[in-house]
Write a structure and sequence with these properties.
441 residues, alpha+beta, Beta-Lactamase, Heat Shock Protein 90, five-stranded antiparallel beta sheet, five-stranded mixed beta sheet, rod-shaped
């Protein structure tokens, strides 16, 4: 699952927030109940000591210790002190036990609150909150209350709270995960449609299952995307049809004009007519590359395309006594593209290099891989150029002796744009270095 999608972010945020809230809730609940239990126990112990001491002070003829002994004995045997969570102990001046269900007095000062364990008092295990007070100067009275509510809290309440929070967190996360899966399926459907259109399938559309509910924003978006693609296809088909008709009519008219001029012996006019035919062909070719996604895209090996172009153009190099220095860096690198278009771009670069390469020199042709990109480089050893700007080079092509119209590099640029590739021109001193890099498939 991608961490960048909105629902994925919401899912992980929900999990983190839920666990943080659960931890805070458990801590707060534990502390609140613990404080409530301790406060209630203190109130009960204080009231119990007050009652016992008040009863002892009512009789002046009988010592307080005797009255306390009687009261503690009554509480122990008639009120089931241990079952009620009460702990009593009256100890003498030497620390000896006089009466009580506790076996020993903990080493603690008087008139303080203390939390001890049952083992410290010689009773069954568990936390006990006690208060120790002085009686008749040298005797000590201990009254305690077991913190059974806290034990119940630890044993039942907190685990149930934690499980409940985890279950709710799991249910909400499952809901978000389900929404994320639906969201991803629809986004993947969008991406597949756009990828198909990019590959030349003008009829690609969002599936009807993705356009279900009118209150689904992605479904509405998919409906509008389909309508937009319908309109784009209609316009492109119309443009392609119009271009073909225009090209046919222009070629037919200019060809007739050239034939008439030739028949009258006007060779210069006939040559100009041939140049016009070539110009119209170039313009229509560039327009088709830049505006019509009708070229079939497929996974191809760039080295195979380069090898094919070199085979087609090798005789031209032999005729000009120019050799080719070929080097393949990664022969297995694959890209998504149109083999005829890429091959035509390389042929244009080879033609440009051959025009400016001195006889007996070399033209370097190589495939190079750089990270997630792969491309080919064509470098000649000619006089080079003052500016590597495409506009300036196209102007040189139009003004050159070759009779061109400066469309060679424009053609390469159009192919680069069509493939999302990067065209780079550099003054190699001497010569011109042209590179075209594509993304790996």
């Amino acid at each position: 699952m991608s961490l960048r999608s909105p629902i994925s972010i919401a899912l992980y945020t929900n999990l983190v927030v839920t666990f943080c809230v659960a931890a805070i809730a458990i801590l707060v609940a534990f502390r609140a109940v613990d404080m409530a239990v301790e406060r209630a126990a203190r109130e009960d112990i204080s009231r119990e000591i007050a009652i016992m001491l008040d009863r002892a002070s009512e009789r002046n003829t009988i010592p307080d210790t005797a009255i306390l002994t009687t009261n503690i004995g009554r509480r122990m045997f008639t009120e089931s002190a241990e079952e009620g969570g009460w702990v009593y102990l009256l100890a003498g001046s030497e620390g000896g036990v006089i009466v009580g269900n506790a076996k020993r007095m903990p080493p603690s000062e008087t008139d303080i609150w203390a939390e001890v364990t049952g083992q410290d008092l010689g009773v069954s295990a568990g936390p006990v909150l006690v208060r120790i007070v002085s009686v008749e100067g040298d005797h000590r009275l201990l009254v305690g209350r077991r913190l059974t509510a806290r034990q119940s809290l630890n044993a039942w309440f907190l685990p149930i709270l934690a499980i409940s929070v985890l279950v709710l967190s799991g249910l909400s996360s499952l809901l978000l995960w389900s929404l994320n899966q639906r969201f991803r399926r629809k986004v993947q459907a969008f991406n597949q449609v756009f990828k198909s259109v990019e590959s030349g399938e003008l009829g690609a559309r969002m599936p009807t299952t993705t356009l279900a509910a009118p209150d689904d924003d992605l479904g509405v978006l998919g409906h509008h995307v389909n309508k937009a693609l319908d309109e784009v296809e209609r316009l492109l088909r119309g443009l392609e049809s119009y271009s073909q008709v225009a090209a046919h009519e222009l070629n037919h008219s200019i060809t007739n004009l050239r034939d008439r001029l030739s028949s009258k012996g006007e060779t210069e006019g006939a040559e100009q007519a041939d140049n016009l035919i070539e110009l119209v062909t170039h313009i229509l070719e560039l327009a088709k590359i830049e505006a019509t996604p009708g070229f079939a895209m497929q996974t191809i090996k760039l080295a195979d395309v380069v090898a094919s172009a070199l085979d087609l153009y090798s005789e031209s190099f032999d005729e000009m006594a120019v050799s080719m220095d070929v080097n393949f860096d990664d022969a297995d690198a694959q890209i998504l593209g149109s083999k005829p278009l890429i091959e035509s771009a390389l042929i244009n670069l080879l033609s440009n290099a051959l025009k400016h390469a001195p006889r007996g020199s070399k033209v370097g042709v190589s495939t190079v891989r750089e990270g997630r990109r792969v491309g080919f480089i064509v470098r000649d050893h000619g006089p080079g150029v003052e500016s590597t700007e495409l506009e300036a080079l196209a102007a040189l092509g139009r003004a050159g002796d070759s009779g061109g119209h400066g469309f060679g590099l424009r053609h390469v640029e159009a192919v680069a744009i069509r493939h999302g590739a990067q065209l780079k021109l550099e003054n190699a001193a001497p010569g011109l270095k042209a590179s075209l890099f594509f993304r790996l498939s």
